[in-house]
Amino acid sequence: MAESLPARLALVSGGLALTLTVINQLSAPAGTLLIPAFQRAGVLDGILAVLLMVVGALWSRIEPVVASRAALSGEEGLVLADDLPEALRRELGWGSTMLLTATPAAVVLLQWRGETLLRRGLLAQTPFHPGPICAQSLERQRAISLVKLALYPGRAEFDGLLQGLPSVLVQPLGASGLLVLGGWSERCFRRSDLAWVEGWAGRLTDEWAQVLDGRAERAVEAQQPQESGTG
Predict the structure, then answer these.
(1) CB 104 within 8 A of CB 188
(2) What is the pLDDT of residue 142?
(3) Nearest CA to 181 among 168, 191, 193, 192?
(4) Which percentage of the chain shows pLDDT scores above 90?
(5) Alpha helices in the chain (DSSP H)
(6) Residue 180, Cβ neighbours under 10 Å: how many?
(7) In whole angstroms, what separates CA 219 from the centre of its chain?
């Protein structure tokens, strides 16, 4: 990981100070080394130099360099499923807007029982079909963050989300839904972004799971008479 300018300055200053302290101790006359004040000064100089280097190392972890955005192709848009309650449409519109503005997401997709209810951001022309990675997230009931999608053998699963995505975040919505985000760059989703996604996922499952389950069951019941008549 590359360090920021303040981190590099702290590391270089600490290393230089430690080097000068060692040189000063080695080049001092033999009698001077026995003076308590000189010994204390050497110890304090060494401690301060090490502290500077530690600050530089911590700084590089607190402020990591973010990878540049990938050149993703897709048209900005919003697609919502038909026959959604108006209150739910507002909820999905609000939540997707927040994720696209408050996190580094380029596309947001929400599925419930295999049906895509929401797709927003950069839109692909292909449908998204969940694969083994999404199934694993549902089974474990835990979010899966693919920080560098190109390294994962199962990355083709997300071609239907958007081609060329550098990173992907999969968040389960209980046992029936999935919230999938595609990021602009590698390692772009941080802990604060995961908190945003998890918080909205909890809100959706707590307040809308029964409504969505009822809608899905009515859709299945509506198809059964048609299938019987066709047979």
Answers:
(1) yes
(2) 96
(3) 168
(4) 55
(5) 5-27, 36-62, 86-102, 132-140, 191-230
(6) 26
(7) 34
3-state SS string over 33-94?
A: HHCHHHHHHHHHHHHHHHHHHHHHHHHHHHCCCCCCCCCCCCEEEEEECCCCCHHHHHHHHH
Burial of 213 (0-12, 13-18, 19+ CB in 10 A): middle
What average pLDDT does the structure give for the chain? Answer: 86
pTM for the full model? 0.70
The Cα–Cα gap between 7 and 9 comes to 5
Q: Backbone phi, then psi, for 77, in 5-degree steps?
A: -175, 180
Q: Which two three-digit tokens encode residue 56?
A: 């530089």
Q: Give tens-digit pLDDT for 118-145.
A: 999 999 989 999 999 999 999 999 999 9
Q: Which residues contact 227 (CB under 8 A, 6 or more apart)?
A: none
